[in-house]
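Incident review: delayed structure delivery

Summary: a single-chain prediction request sat in the queue longer than the usual turnaround. Root cause was a stuck worker, restarted by the on-call engineer. No data loss occurred. The affected request and its eventual output are reproduced below so the record is complete for anyone auditing the incident later.

Affected input:
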Amino acid sequence: MKPTLIASFTVAGRHLSDYSLQVPLDWKHTEGEHITVFYREVVAAHRQHEELPLMIYLQGGPGGAGPRPIGDSGWLSVALERFRVILMDQRGTGASTPVTTQVIEGFDSGEAGAAYLENFRADSIIRDAEAIRIHGYGSKPWVTLGQSYGGFLTLSYLSFFPEALAGCLITGGLPSLTPCAASVYARTIPRVRAKNEKFYNLYPADRHRVENLVRTLNEDEYFLPDGDRFTVRRLQSLGIDFGMGPGFERLHWLLELSGDGTNISNALLQEVQNRTSFASNPLFAVLQEDIYGDGANGAARFAAEAELELHPEFSTKAQPLLFTGEMMFRCTFDETKLLRPFLPAVKELAVRRTHRKIYDREQLAANQVPVAAAVYHDDMYVDAGLSLDTASKVGNLHAWVTNEHEHDGINDPSVLRRLLKNLEALGGPLQR
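Output delivered after worker restart:
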């Protein structure tokens, strides 16, 4: 098993090398079907021949492709000051063998589709990372930087391959060590409601605009360019962006395309499709609740949908209309063309009570790898209370709690600088 160099080039002061690596679809059956995992190495061009410490970036998700570098700002520029950085496309995404509607349509039952999708969870992703480290970098230990779902991956990595890690950094992604989708969404709903209140306070004219838009959508049928109907529930789902720094502004400018809410323009329809079709990352929707499955902790059973039904203020008939957050419902799959073929498999995943293990709590309690984590106090997606409970149960972890950033705080270079400083205070990356 040896990585294949696809391309190597220098641009904007950075040297980039693209690789592919063949890995087993199921790491428990290494002689079976194989898939491709893509990764990109980035290093400051003037340091490309130096022996530098390694950092692998664990992208958010689920279903996250590694970032494509643009410009010279953000966390990557900070990381390149001292690291050789590896950007991996998680299996099933980006340039790694993708999971698409065409792939899932090839299975003759929901059970078969679910069995395939089970291979795209955290346990498999960290084993892919290990294959890259061992076969691409001679087993040299590295530092991880996990954003959002990347924090879930980090704790899984620490659980099963701590010897691979010199240090870990986590931004907005310390999950509960006793995961339960139902309890996660019970905590999520109040934060989403608060984000709605803030949005309408910032843009009071949007209350009237949204009210008109709902009326317009109920009085006539409008279709997105791919043929999906533009429904009120689809409109509500645009609130998924509320947890990001510019999320309020992005939704406001989109709503502005509707005029006073009665103009369903082609521009509006195209923009709604771009934001809600999941064309580039179906696994984000498909595995949204499955990421909480750990051992025998029970079935998710469309937990977000069940919790939302307890809150009539989120009804499609309520005024003002409240936008939902990072939640997937059965209707999400029914109403979305590119997700519809996944529904039988998603239903099967939703009732599974037993899952592959993703955390080893005893190992995490005894952890000696230094871990520096940023916990965003007002994070809409990851509950700060659950994050701090986890921080108290993982050895050698320092949690920095701040309300200065939203979930995408990693885009501010000062966040990574602060975490690296905190890592140094813990003794710095281990010398293995």
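Verification: The radius of gyration is 22 Å.
Action items: add queue-age alerting; document worker restart procedure.
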